[in-house]
Automatic annotation (TrEMBL):
Gene3D superfamilies: Protein tyrosine phosphatase superfamily (3.90.190.10). Belongs to the protein-tyrosine phosphatase family. It comes from Lacticaseibacillus zeae subsp. silagei. It is an enzyme of class 3 (hydrolase). Its EC number is 3.1.3.48. PROSITE patterns: TYR_PHOSPHATASE_1. This is Tyrosine-protein phosphatase. Pfam families: Y_phosphatase3.
Length: 251
């Protein structure tokens, strides 16, 4: 089978936590958007990986412009993480139209990922969905880097995976998206986007350790700790956390 890799698709299973327990394989997958997948890619997700649930964290506009490829038998859930955020640099459209300092804009977006009502409600629903149905699930946004990156970080942090491992998984996006980002920039250049703006978009298409660090710093400042964020921000109970660890850890 001639399989072209799905952009930024990878699993969270296999990581070890601080207690040497392993995140179960075959259940938790993160990805970029699942737009215009070919038959080989669809077959890989359905027959090889066995995806049963797709969680789409994108906006209504993004979903309309780049609809997900339907997978037979897979449930589809929309969680618009940044729906009511005042700052959202996480979509391609915003990257193209946004003015100002890209790093400051991205830091503001990560603050929204911690504090906006839609993000807290969305990540609450995200964890609750994973609690309700521990089955092969892929979650994604546009690039699989910001909304998805935070979603993956929440899962791994909740499972007591070390911060260094969480950051390494987050930064892996820059390697995984290298080709896709080059294609985006080449297409925008053909459309006549100025070089200065292309340089800005190139920065926005990448993740930076400072972004995820800022997300966790905001949580510590506003809630006191990640555990308090889980309980007060995401409205998860101690029983939810214990059950989640029981479902997704082994060893």
């Amino acid at each position: 089978m001639n399989l072209k890799k799905i952009t930024n698709f990878r699993e969270l299973g296999g990581y070890r936590n601080k207690n040497k327990q392993m995140v179960k394989k075959g259940l938790l997958y993160r990805s970029g958007q699942l737009f215009e997948l070919d038959d080989a890619q669809k077959n890989y997700l359905t027959a090889t990986v066995g995806i049963q649930h797709i969680i789409d964290m994108r906006s209504e506009d993004e979903r309309a412009q780049f609809p997900d490829t339907t997978l037979p038998g897979a449930a589809y859930t929309v969680l618009d993480i940044l729906k009511d955020a005042t700052t959202n640099d996480a979509s391609l459209g915003h990257m193209i139209t946004e003015q100002g300092d890209v790093r400051e804009n991205m830091l503001a977006t990560y603050e929204q990922l911690a504090m906006s009502d839609s993000a807290q409600a969305g990540y609450h629903a995200f964890i609750r969905d994973l609690l309700a149905a521990p089955e092969p699930t892929v979650f994604h946004c546009f690039a699989g880097k910001d909304r998805t990156g935070v979603g993956a970080a929440i899962i791994l942090k909740l499972l007591a995976v070390p911060n260094e491992t969480i950051m390494a998984d987050y930064l892996l996006t820059n390697q995984e998206r290298k080709t896709a980002n080059q294609v985006i920039l080449a297409d925008l250049k053909k459309q006549g986007v100025p070089v200065s703006q292309l340089q800005t978009i190139a920065v926005a298409l990448k993740v930076d350790a400072a972004y995820l660090a800022h997300y966790f710093q905001v949580i510590d400042t506003k809630f006191g700790s990640f555990d308090q964020y889980l309980r007060q921000g995401l409205q998860l109970t101690d029983a939810d956390v214990d059950t989640f660890r029981g479902l997704y850890l082994q060893g």
